[in-house]
Design brief:
The chain has about 140 residues and is of the alpha+beta class. It folds into two domains: about 35 residues; about 90 residues, RNA Polymerase Alpha Subunit, Chain A, domain 2 (Beta Complex). It contains three helices and eight strands. The protein starts with a helix and ends with a strand.
Length: about 140
Amino acid sequence: MAVAWFQRLRRDWGLKLFALALAVLIWTTVHDMIQGTGGGGAVGFGRTRTLPEVPVWVLIPANWGQAWRVEPARVEVVVRGRRELLDTLRPEDIRVVVRVDPEHSGVEHLEPVEVSAPAGVNVVRVQPPRIRVWSPPD
């Protein structure tokens, strides 16, 4: 019985080496894609990074003089990209904007958060996705 197992192991060396090389190639390719370390500028899946305290900007029409408040004033943004880009990324490089419609003057309401990131960086998630907006009484 033991001799038959050993003989089977010794057969088809070329095929077994090819299968091992293919498995190693697939593993390293997937690993590099997940880690964002692929060569040649390939982004792959990339790495993720969480920026916990990104300030929120309020966007209102230029002729609208009313003050607006938002809560929370800072949000958490999760981004994905190449390691080199994420290592140098600062919270100021991410723009988080809430657009205020003057028709909601004086009314507390929720507005969606818009996030823009530099080229090569993708926004995965923003928390919270909607922000409370209101205009305090004069």
